Amino acid sequence: MNTMKAVGVTHYLPIDQADSLLDVEIPRPSASGHDLLVQVQAISVNPVDTKIRAPKDQVEENPRILGWDVAGIVVEVGNQVTHFQVGDEVFYAGSVARAGGNSEYHLVDERIVGHKPKSLDFAAAAALPLTALTAWEAIHERLGISEDTVSNSGKTILIINAAGGVGSIATQIAHLAGLTVIGTASRPETSDWAKAHGADHVINHHDTFVPQLKKIGFSDVHYILCLNHTDQHWQHMADAIAPQGKICSIVETEQPIDLEALKNKSATFVWEFMFTRSMYETDDMSEQGIILNRIATHIDEGKLRTTETKRLRPINATQLREAHRLLEAGDMIGKLVLEDFES
């Protein structure tokens, strides 16, 4: 049986324990149906990785493979594949319902895969898929914001946690759409990063929103994208959203939220979960491949840029533990990527 290297979880432990992530050998899969077999060149980490790996009383009989940001090369295609061929360079986030991409080879449905931006190397490309898909779906689909810059003239969006992984690309996408982008940050370096990536203004998410908005000339905002602590920011968002405005969040709540706070404004609240399409294999699942190709085109045309800020090598358990540790510390700017399995 052909095997491959991977980094897996058997026991759910704190990241400072050596057994929290393990170097393992697992069977190398083969492609069939709509699947591509991708030789993994680079990966990135996201909060979903650390949340799944978080300590719990559960033991895996077979190692569980995490990782939902991949850039690599197609080495095998299933018999129903129509958009890719062997040798294609690709990038994608994959499906949380399947094994992740922290392995030398990875199976992924072609419908949620894009062609890698030609202007980026694999590591820089691996920083993008999950966050770019999340930001694009949140802005253009959940909030219903057009890509037409003329129609967005004079409209405002508040992006909470603008320097984080999703925020770093969301500020760019919102700016590209012609919105006035107000980001939140709490440190000089995160404020500078947000402004460098498309935020026209920055306020502090530790302080009340409305007085800060009024200081920069806005009584309210048309849209809010919440990328941090939905319940903690809830009342501030309800106060800041314009009548008939829309709020989208990607972060689950720890406490119940009061939807009635939006009633008088007839405001909308909507969730964005990037894995919905792949989990439920929705009829429009292929939209994710289309979005990734749009992102790649924008990257190659210089309209968007990678959000990679730190690169580790090689891909192994030691380096992934360090990546998880850095992510759990909560002060990451942009995205952390890993490249190259040891030969």
Automatic annotation (TrEMBL):
- The Enoyl reductase (ER) domain covers 16-338
Q: Which Gene3D superfamilies match?
A: Medium-chain alcohol dehydrogenases, catalytic domain, NAD(P)-binding Rossmann-like Domain
Which family would the database say this protein is a member of?
Belongs to the zinc-containing alcohol dehydrogenase family. Quinone oxidoreductase subfamily.
Instruction: Answer yes or no on keyword Metal-binding.
Output: yes
Top-rank taxon: Bacteria
A Gene Ontology molecular function term for this protein is: zinc ion binding
**Does rRNA-binding appear among the keywords?**
no
Concerning Pfam families, the annotation shows: ADH_N, ADH_zinc_N_2
Its protein name is Zinc-type alcohol dehydrogenase-like protein
* Alphabetized UniProt keyword annotations: Metal-binding, NADP, Oxidoreductase, Zinc
